[in-house]
Structure formats: C-alpha cells, structure tokens
Amino acid sequence: MNAIVPPLSGMACDACAIRNRAICADLRADELDILNRLGRRRRLRGGEQLLWEGEEAVLVANVVDGVLKLSTQTGDGKEQILGLAYHSDFLGRPFGETTPYGVEALTDATVCVFQQRDFDQFARTHPRLEHKLLERTLAELDRTRRWMLLLGRMNAEQKLAHFLLELADSLDQTCSKTQDAHVAFNLPLSRQQIADVLGLTIETVSRQLTRMRKEGLIDLPARRKVTILQHRALEDRAGMAVQNG
Amino acid sequence: MNAIVPPLSGMACDACAIRNRAICADLRADELDILNRLGRRRRLRGGEQLLWEGEEAVLVANVVDGVLKLSTQTGDGKEQILGLAYHSDFLGRPFGETTPYGVEALTDATVCVFQQRDFDQFARTHPRLEHKLLERTLAELDRTRRWMLLLGRMNAEQKLAHFLLELADSLDQTCSKTQDAHVAFNLPLSRQQIADVLGLTIETVSRQLTRMRKEGLIDLPARRKVTILQHRALEDRAGMAVQNG
DNA sequence: CGTGGCGTTGAACTACGTCAATGCATGTGG
DNA sequence: CCACATGCATTGACGTAGTTCAACGCCACG
Question: In the CATH hierarchy, which fold is given to the domain comprising A8-151?
Fold first, then answer.
C-alpha cells in the first residue's frame, strides 16, 4: 500500500540509523512514510555549509551522522560557535522567518533535510512529532544554558576540560575505550574552531592542551587525535580547579 | 456553562494581562476554562525563590508581571544568571525530571503556576497549546544563543551596553519615554546581579556604568535607576566599540 | 547617631589576548 | 628522494582588560 514512491533517495526511514533517537521516533509507520517522502538524505563533506546565518529559513534537518557546528558572528567578524550537533540532533528553525545561526559540517556528515514549509505543515498536523520536537528543543535549551555557564564563568582550563569530556561523551559511539578507562578519539575541530567554541584564542587552546599533556591528563598522538588518560582528574579540572601555590 | 468553579484564585484567564501574549493565546474559551482550573496565581515578593536548581520539576509557570532571574551555580559557588524572565515568559521544565535552573523574583512579581504533571497532561492533549509552547521555546533558544555570543565574545563595555538596551526594551511597558528619546527605568537588579548576568565582577560593572555616565551616555539618578540619554551612541558601544586613541 | 548593606574608587595582580617567530607535517615539483 | 612551499600548531615575549583586595562613601533604618 505504501512505499512505492522511492523515499529519501533510496534510503527508507525504517532503516535509518537514528530511527529511534531522532524526532521521528514514536511515529507510526504510515506517518513515517509521509515524512519519508518529504525529506531527503544529503551527504556533506567536511567544511561544507548547510545553513547560513540570517538567510530565509527554508531548510530544517536531522543529523544522521557526523559532527556539525552552529555559529554566529559578531559585528567585527569574530566567530562564536553556539554549539555542536551530533547524530540525531535537529537543525534549523521551524516556524520562523530566518535561520538564526550558520551550520557547517566539521566532519563528513549525513543529514536528513526537509523543506521548512513542508516540515512545519507536517508537524502542525502530527502532534506526536511536534511533541518530540518540543522535548528535543527543551533539552537543547538546557544544554545551551549549561554552555552559558561555561562561557561566562569558567577559565580556560575548565573550558578545555569540559570540552574534551563532552566531546568524548558525544562521540562515544565512535571512540575506542581501552583498558584503564583511556578514551581515544579524533578531534572533529581545528584549534581555531575549538577556540571559537570556547570563546578563547587559538594560542590559549594550544597552551592549555600542551599543559594538560605535560601533566599527564591527556595525550595528543596527532594533531587531530586526543586520548584521555585520567578521566577523573580531568573532571576535577572541569569542575573547579584551584591552582594555588 | 463554564466558570462556576472559582478559577485562578478569583482571577479568570479572560481578564489576564497576558491573555494574548502567553502560551495560552489561541486557546478556545472552553480550553482556557480547563487551564483556568489547573493553574493558580501566585504573588512573589522581590527576592522570593520560585524554583530551585536541581529539584524535582513539580511546577511550571507563566510570568504575568515583574522580573525574575534564571540562574545556575558553578562548583565553587559563583553564580551565572542564565537569563531574565519578563511578562508572558514561560518558566520551568515541562516533560522533564528536574528543574535545570533556579528561579528567583527580582522585583515583586505575579506568576500563574501549574503542577507540572497537570500541565504536561493538558499540553499533550491540546496540540495548540503545545505548539505555542514549542514556538516560545524555540524563540527562547534563539535568545539564549544570542546571549552566548555576548558572554563569549564581548568586552565589558559591550556587555553593559547590550544589557541596558535589552532591559529598556523588555521593560518598555513600565518605563517612561521622555522627549529626545530619553528612556528612564528602574533597575530590577543589584550590581552584583548585573555582574552575574554578564559574567563580570561587581567592580567592573560599577566602573563601566560610571564611565558611561561621565561620557554622557546614561544617567544614574539613583542606585536602582537608569536613564538612557543617547540611545544611538549606546547601540554603537553595544555593536562594536573600537576605543582607539 | 550609629550600624549595616550596597556601591564606588584606587592600586596591584594575573589570566588571557596579541604579535611574532618557529616547528612540523603534508604535498608538489624537480 | 630531496627542496621548498603551504597551512596548521606550538612556543615565547609582552601588553592589557578585567579581577582581586582593600579602603571609603553613601544612604536607609533602627
């Protein structure tokens, strides 16, 4: 009865990696089928831009895999990254005029994109989807507010420690846990991008990382690789490191 | 047919000051009547706490009037104010376990509170309300992200300028516009609280304010009063002040 | 008229930013 | 395989915005 139309460029929602984690969780098969036809998969290369800050809001999307950054700019061109988006995160601004932030893929990524117009209409007529979206937005608001604390009240060391811990956590599908709770992962961001996330400069990021390395908290086997050696100690630094004499 | 049960401690939604601005806008009379019976008005004195960070999420609320602060704390007890809530803003965490931030009234305030459980259930069965809540949450997320830019990338002068302009804007019901676009209003926050909002110290706030006063941008007729004398100039400072020699 | 909160002001310190040199990979062309 | 160019990362030296510490002023309130 359904699914004769080729959905999502040949990739059905049923088989989607984030089927049960994204906002499309809880949808019935027939609803999913409709959504299936509205959206399409899109592969992004690292560095590719999906949404531009201030443009008309024409697209919304779900992250299937990869890491993307949400960012905005100050009057004088300094960038502030507003957050990172991982698998099953939602991107874009439904029910709004303009996209409030730019979205760029940091790694190669897959997203499931919708015309905002179509998506809005579908959402308005499918309360279960809208409810999912609401829950996700509320959670995102919580997450964003926790970042405010980081930006407003933490020093460079705490910021870096937090950043590494959160990244390790968000990536734990990808990263390999060796014995002794060592966690190794690939950094999806350059030093400059880390600086933009944390409201620091590239030099401060670099200095803090090498300091943590020298202190044995982490290892930096390559530019884009990090290993967390002392998870607990790193948590202490994130919490409130008092570096007295 | 409806409204025999005394609603909201004798105050019906129909007559509510924020009837058409809060999430209850767009509700039909009969829906509103149900909501009416679920909620109750509560008056708060300045300084009174409505929600505590980390507690079980039992209440949600709408701000009717007054100014409240949302805040969280670092491990070492420093406070970061996550935002201010004005009339028709929504407070609390529906569909969640714990309240992610503390809420305290800065001025005397009136709120319309609901048991989270009741509210959640009503929302889930009334898509129009849930849609309103979604729109509001999305807007709040946008607003929060703009604050991140402020916290992460602005200097003290810009932060203060932004703060005063936003406050003047949010309070424009209350504040008196004299000729020459002068805007006078009462500060709902102490210097310490302003510092907590902006991620600064009380001394820096004080110094910046007196500097702006000396430069003729604002006047400070009393501790808790501000007059904006040169609105445009203040906007320039907020945007990107290059203070060269 | 004292007492206790805020707020302001000053002086010294410091974490981070800025500027500039150097290091270290990866790629390209001889 | 080497020379060298290019782009990111590291490291150092120095400057400064904002913090910290401390004294003092102002005003409300008993």
Answer: Jelly Rolls (2.60.120)
